[in-house]
Amino acid sequence: MVGQQQTTLHLLAEQVFSLTGYSYVFAYVAGVLSDRHGRKPVLLTGWILGLPVPLLIMRAPSWEWIIVANVLLGINQGLAWSTTVTMKIDLVGPRQRGLAMGLNEAAGYLAVSLTSLAAGMLAAQYGLRPAPFLLGVAYAVLALVIVALLVHETRGHVALEAPSGRANLSNTAIIADVTWRHPALSSASVVGMASNLNFGLSWGVFPLLFAGAGLSLGQIGLLVALYPLVWGLGQLATGWISDHIGRKPLVVGGMALQAGAPAVIAWSEGMGGWVAGTILLGLGSAMVYPALLAVIGDVADPAWRGRAVGVYRVWRDLGYTAGALLGGLTADALGLHSAVWAAAVLSGLVTALVAYRLTESHPGLP
């Protein structure tokens, strides 16, 4: 659902709606509802709300329709993706938590990559609408059928886990821990937000930067797809690695790569440098993503795990908005290359912060 828009939406804004300026809490709601009422109903609701998204974009007579579609997409992501993460943590123990998170995130971001590539190819062959968004219709219908018929409730597995001794935290205390108070949980939120800031920037600025250099729709689709492709494939290994060497080395090293990758992209002037930069950015994201979710699973008590994942995802997914705002405002004021340099500097500062503050959370490691 995200991938269908990644290649085409900003070009649609320019070419169809003549928008030339460069210039969300449902993840937490999902956590509260899944802790209270079960995981499956929340997952099903998320996909019901996701079904209209591609239909609205296909038929949109004005940009306001696109905004409404993306509000629904945000709700869909907040409810559905947060719940799948919580369900997988329910189903596996701490020894294989990183592997499970890596498999979950790999499935998602490989789908983003492949759909970005497919949407670019369809747009080049058949135009920006409606062909690329027929993919989203098929995905939403398929997801609804799978959730309704095949997915089982996982909340009962929580009872099999030993409590952490912090089972009675209030909602306020959980928010405080994940936002600033607990070193591991709050560090995960900061890194997640910074990582998605880079993703938001890649979604909003990179296609315009590449188009301004004269690349074709097919070449832009390839570059935009390469980032989540490396991200998705890499997570097949990085989650498992975090189960063996710990979460912190993956988080700090991955954030350092994400600081260097935008600098490579901003410095480069051709396809070779942009390919290298997007590969580095994808590898850095692959290192941090499953490790961060494993940190939440390591620390959060089973009784409030869904809410912890929800708060983390609120901060993490605010990175999309922050990346769009940072990229848009900086690009309007100083140019597209300056927006990419700004992301590199900010990612470097976050790397230094978490290297100092993040504590190792793996229960089997010091």
Automatic annotation (TrEMBL):
<dbReference type="GO" id="GO:0005886">
    <property type="term" value="C:plasma membrane"/>
</dbReference>
<protein>
    <submittedName>
        <fullName>Predicted arabinose efflux permease, MFS family</fullName>
    </submittedName>
</protein>
<feature type="transmembrane region" description="Helical">
    <location>
        <begin position="339"/>
        <end position="358"/>
    </location>
</feature>
<keyword id="KW-0472">Membrane</keyword>
<keyword id="KW-1133">Transmembrane helix</keyword>
<feature type="transmembrane region" description="Helical">
    <location>
        <begin position="274"/>
        <end position="296"/>
    </location>
</feature>
<keyword id="KW-0812">Transmembrane</keyword>
<feature type="domain" description="Major facilitator superfamily (MFS) profile">
    <location>
        <begin position="184"/>
        <end position="366"/>
    </location>
</feature>
<feature type="transmembrane region" description="Helical">
    <location>
        <begin position="250"/>
        <end position="267"/>
    </location>
</feature>
<dbReference type="InterPro" id="IPR011701">
    <property type="entry name" value="MFS"/>
</dbReference>
<dbReference type="InterPro" id="IPR005829">
    <property type="entry name" value="Sugar_transporter_CS"/>
</dbReference>
<keyword id="KW-0813">Transport</keyword>
<keyword id="KW-1003">Cell membrane</keyword>
<feature type="transmembrane region" description="Helical">
    <location>
        <begin position="16"/>
        <end position="34"/>
    </location>
</feature>
<feature type="transmembrane region" description="Helical">
    <location>
        <begin position="65"/>
        <end position="85"/>
    </location>
</feature>
<dbReference type="GO" id="GO:0022857">
    <property type="term" value="F:transmembrane transporter activity"/>
</dbReference>
<dbReference type="InterPro" id="IPR036259">
    <property type="entry name" value="MFS_trans_sf"/>
</dbReference>
<feature type="transmembrane region" description="Helical">
    <location>
        <begin position="133"/>
        <end position="151"/>
    </location>
</feature>
<feature type="domain" description="Major facilitator superfamily (MFS) profile">
    <location>
        <begin position="1"/>
        <end position="155"/>
    </location>
</feature>
<feature type="transmembrane region" description="Helical">
    <location>
        <begin position="41"/>
        <end position="59"/>
    </location>
</feature>
<dbReference type="InterPro" id="IPR020846">
    <property type="entry name" value="MFS_dom"/>
</dbReference>
<dbReference type="InterPro" id="IPR050171">
    <property type="entry name" value="MFS_Transporters"/>
</dbReference>
<dbReference type="Pfam" id="PF07690">
    <property type="entry name" value="MFS_1"/>
</dbReference>
<feature type="transmembrane region" description="Helical">
    <location>
        <begin position="106"/>
        <end position="127"/>
    </location>
</feature>
